[in-house]
Amino acid sequence: MRIIYSRAVLGTFSLALALASGCTANSVEELDPTFCDANTVSYQADIAPILERSCNNGSLNTNGNGICHQSGSPIADYTTFDNFKGAVDAGIINNRVIVSGDMPPSYSSGPRLDAAEIQQLKCWIDLGAPDN
Question: Structure pTM?
Answer without folding.
Answer: 0.67
